[in-house]
Specification:
Layout: H1 2-26, E1 36-45, E2 53-63, E3 70-72, E4 79-82, E5 86-91, E6 94-98, E7 103-105, E8 111-113, E9 118-119, E10 136-138, E11 143-146, E12 149-153, E13 156-159, E14 164-168, E15 172-176, E16 179-181, E17 186-189, E18 191-193, H2 199-234
Antiparallel strand pairs: 1-2, 3-18, 4-17, 5-6, 5-9, 5-13, 6-15, 7-8, 10-11, 11-12, 13-16, 14-15
Helix pairs in contact: 1-2
Length: 236
């Protein structure tokens, strides 16, 4: 039965990768989305009698942090990050990191995301935009100013050493550890960062995974027939 177990673990991993690829393609036009991939690990188990059995497990997701294309929108509160860094926003579950810079002032004048989460400044406090600040601009370091007077500074951070980034809600990440200022990142006003998904590459990979899955399915069916034949012969 070892060969059947090996095939099942392989098929399970391929199904997981297919779901990830489909999600990437679905979000190829989502602002700030980061492409995911699946890493396959090897699990080796002894059979107790004879050679060991090696099984492939596709159970680890890998997120690409490659820079996406910056698209001009002309929006006063549309911001994109050039370089390695994230905006920090306040959610009901705590601070989260994102590259999606589609912001707008709410009724209270606080700068928020499209989902209503407050954008945080470099000190971790909400950012207030005065209603009489029509000529707002942003510097490369994230400093917001109106009529030449500084208002606040967008909090740009990067995960510290050893900090894990856990994806949440498509474009949101939870930092499992410390974050620190993103000294090498810069902010561009009137632009948004597109998804870094390569649709053509993902479609090509989807075809490869589908063919690999069909091959594994054929092997599983042949193995099932072999076992049935062996069992039938043994009990005759």
């Amino acid at each position: 039965m070892e060969s059947s177990y090996v095939t099942l673990t392989r098929q399970s991993g391929l199904m997981q990768e297919m779901r990830v690829i489909a999600n990437n393609i679905a979000n190829s036009a989502t602002t700030g989305f980061r492409q995911e991939g699946v890493l396959f690990s090897e699990y080796v188990a002894g059979t107790g009698n004879g050679p060991s059995v090696s099984m492939a497990l596709g159970n680890v997701r890998n997120t690409s942090m490659e820079q996406g294309t910056l698209t001009s929108t002309g929006g006063r509160f549309d911001f994109a990050i050039e370089g390695n860094g994230f905006f920090q926003v306040e959610t009901t579950a705590g601070p989260r990191l994102t590259r999606a810079g589609t912001f707008t002032p709410n009724a209270e004048g606080e700068l928020v995301t499209h989902a209503g989460y407050r954008v945080l400044d470099a000190g971790g406090a909400p950012i207030f935009i005065p209603p009489d600040a029509p000529d707002m601009a942003v510097g490369a370091d994230g400093t917001l100013s109106a009529n030449g007077q500084p208002l606040a500074q967008l909090g740009l951070v990067i995960p510290g050493e050893g900090t894990q980034m856990i994806r949440e809600d498509g474009v949101m990440f939870r930092a499992e550890g410390e974050v620190e200022p993103a000294a090498q990142a810069s902010v561009v006003q009137g632009f948004l960062e597109s998804s870094n998904v390569n649709p053509i590459g993902q479609v090509a990979r989807m075809i490869e995974v589908q063919r690999a899955y069909e091959l594994g399915q054929s092997f599983a069916e042949n193995e099932d027939e072999r076992l049935k034949s062996a069992t039938s012969t043994f009990f005759k």
